[in-house]
């Protein structure tokens, strides 16, 4: 059993741990503190008791929601946590007037692409060399809601 709640300052250490376990170039502590002050940002965390086991970040600009990051702790993967985080994000931003959700995903990241496709996201194109660490292309995906 886990709970999904809006991100608060006390969740940041747990989020940073998952960032480090999940990405070659993890976001910094300062980046997440900035997001807490950013009026466009909307973040959710999944909690197993008090432990952060996953999170999703987004920016809501007018009627579009741009997912900035999503990750689940390696020990909690394939339990449907990311899928649920995206579903809850979708239902919440819909109430805020959002009509479409978009994101970029590495062309090599097939697990994440499978996750998004399983929720109805469609591929809309490629951003060449979007990831500056290895110049990898990004697949642009959209879900109309
Ligand atoms: C991608 C990620 C967020 C998925 O989180 P998760 O909680 O394990 O995903 P879910 O359990 O909700 O999976 C839902 C569906 O996504 C797909 N999927 C998830 N992980 C997969 C994998 N490793 N291989 C293939 N398909 C996968 C499956 O269709 C899965 O449904 P199923 O388990 O019934 O087959 C997680 O693997 C992660 O944190 N990866 C590192 C960070 C990352 O790549 N983030 C995305 C950046 S764009």
From TrEMBL:
Reaction(s) this enzyme catalyzes, per UniProt: N-terminal L-alanyl-[ribosomal protein bS18] + acetyl-CoA = N-terminal N(alpha)-acetyl-L-alanyl-[ribosomal protein bS18] + CoA + H(+)
Family membership: Belongs to the acetyltransferase family. RimI subfamily.
Cited CDD domains: NAT_SF
Top-level taxon in the UniProt lineage: Bacteria
Pfam families, per database record: Acetyltransf_1
GO cellular component: cytoplasm
Record's subcellular location: Cytoplasm
Main localization category: cytoplasm
Keywords of the record: Acyltransferase, Cytoplasm, Transferase
Domain N-acetyltransferase: 2-145
The protein's role, per its UniProt record: Acetylates the N-terminal alanine of ribosomal protein bS18.
EC code(s) of this entry: 2.3.1.266
Protein's name in the database: [Ribosomal protein bS18]-alanine N-acetyltransferase
One of the record's GO molecular function terms: protein-N-terminal-alanine acetyltransferase activity
């Amino acid at each position: 059993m886990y709970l999904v709640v809006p991100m608060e300052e006390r969740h940041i250490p747990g989020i940073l741990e998952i960032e480090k376990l999940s990405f070659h170039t993890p976001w910094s502590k300062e980046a997440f503190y900035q997001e807490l002050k950013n009026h466009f940002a909307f973040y959710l965390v999944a909690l197993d008791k008090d432990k952060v086991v996953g999170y999703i970040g987004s920016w809501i600009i007018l009627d579009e929601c741009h997912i900035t990051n999503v990750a689940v702790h390696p020990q909690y993967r394939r339990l449907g946590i990311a899928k649920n985080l995206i579903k809850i994000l979708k239902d919440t931003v819909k109430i805020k007037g959002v009509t479409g959700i978009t994101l970029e995903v590495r062309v090599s990241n097939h697990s994440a692409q499978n996750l998004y496709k399983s929720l109805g996201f469609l591929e809309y194109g490629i951003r060449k060399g979007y990831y500056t660490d290895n110049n990898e292309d990004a697949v642009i995906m959209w879900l109309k809601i």
